[in-house]
Amino acid sequence: MKLINFKTGNRNKIGVLKGKEITEINSSMIEAIKSPNIDKLERLGSYNVEDVNVGVPISPSKIVCVGLNYTDHAKELDMNIPEEPIIFIKPSTAAIGHCDNIIYPNSSAQVDYEAELGIVISKEAHHVSSNDASYYIGGYTVINDVTARDLQRKDVQWTRAKSFDTFAPIGPCIETELDPMDQNISLKLNSKLKQQSNTKNMIFDVYKLVEFISDIMTLKAGDIISTGTPPGVGPMNVGDTVEVEVEGIGVLKNFLKRENK
User: Fold this and answer.
1) How far, in Å, CA of 197 to CA of 200, rounded?
2) By the 8 A CB rule, do 1 and 35 touch?
3) Contact between residue 229 and residue 201 where contact means Cβ atoms under 8 Å apart
4) What is the DSSP string of 156-218?
């Protein structure tokens, strides 16, 4: 089931997305992804997705990201397979939604795209085993791990390069029923295919990532794990349109705009 956060007028609403139709439900997103019977939640009005503003599907306290997690990406970079996941954090302030603008900061000369599958945590998770991880996962979403690559190369730490406002597009929805182990993932820049792989090529699968990360930090309901990007990462420019697609979830579209200040 696809759950979407949308706005009509000045009110945020949660709905079930089928095709282009949204059926509003009487629930918060956290309550919806926790519910064992989403289809039994009270239904309210119906809307066409093209007539509403789609928002960030959920508000995470943190976005935990994974680097170098596809075998084909490691091969592309001629790098050894890591023995443990390489992780970093994006702040919640980096999150934007479907069709929002990615702001190209004046302090960077190279801003890259990175198509990723996102894990949405539904229950507080700490010291969770991979065998039990599915119990703590409320669904999956699409993420673009936007990176100021020149600043990443310049800095010892990755925080600045990964954390600019708008550098974590998420959406357009959360899919609660998805097999994360075998889904195609791709990215188009101005309608040209740039990245293409499958989640079966992950070095550490979603359940192992929940285990590894929850052993370090408590994951709160609504937190997101961004699971790494396949090969083909490259730069975007002001005026570009970038589309990330994960099979079974949908297409996350965003636009590049210049920072004005």
Assistant:
1) 9
2) no
3) no
4) SSSHHHH-STT-EEEEEEEESS--TTS-EEEEEETTEEEEEEEGGGBSS-HHHHHHHHHTTSP
The secondary element (H helix, E strand) that includes residue 13 is strand 11-18
Domain 63-258 class in CATH:
alpha beta
The pLDDT score that the predictor gives to residue 261 is 67
Do residues 32 and 73 touch, judged by C-beta distance below 8 A?
A: no
This model's pTM is above 0.90: yes
DSSP string, 60-84: -S-EEEEES-BHHHHHHTT-PPPSS
Enumerate residue ranges in the chain where pLDDT < 70: 261
pLDDT in tens, 201-217: 999 999 999 999 999 99
**Which residue in the block uniquely carries the two structure tokens 């359940």?**
207
Q: Return the DSSP state at 30.
A: H
Which among 253, 251, 254 has a CA at the least distance from the CA of 17?
251
> Which pLDDT score, from 0 to 100, does residue 150 have?
96
Beta bridge partners of 12: 7
Per-residue tokens: 185 = 């993932």
Is-cis flag, bond preceding 85, omega within 30?
Answer: no
Measured from the Cβ of residue 257, the count of other Cβ atoms closer than 10 Å reads: 15
**What are the domain boundaries of the chain?**
2-54, 63-258
CATH class of segment(s) 2-54: mainly beta
